[in-house]
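S.,

Sequence below, as promised.
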Amino acid sequence: MPTSGSKALKLSWQVACVCLLGIFVPALVTSLGYSLTDALGPGPGFFPFWLSLIGAALSAAILVQVKLAKAAEGTAIGLAPDRRTALQAIGVLIALTAAAALFEPLGYRLTVLPFILGVLLILGARSPIAIALTALAGSFGVFHVFYHWLKVPLPIGAFGV
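The prediction came back faster than expected:
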């Protein structure tokens, strides 16, 4: 069945949302089998429950939004990304791979700080103050909240930072 570019794009969003719901809803049901809290704070089901609930709600909202939107007829929309977007996606994938490899040896803070700096630069952020504040909050701030307040163990790394 041939479809126009905008109809194909709308259909691809709907398929993606249904696939995401197919991941989030079983994860939500599975997380209900674990406790949300324990004596030390968040229990083993805390993060899976909230992440799957938020993911399912966002997927459903996007699905409804795409379903209610009217497809623009006669508009040529390419499904393949342009060169700049493809390079950004490849850069983010490389940064994610490097971060996953460096979590244990360097620790959370020393891995996430350059990761956030790099990803923001790759995605086109240009405000040095905003980039620095976001990277500091995302690395040292998030570590402080999770490690000290929520008592969630995060990798410290060989340098103890």
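The CA atoms of residues 24 and 55 lie 6 Å apart.

Coffee later?
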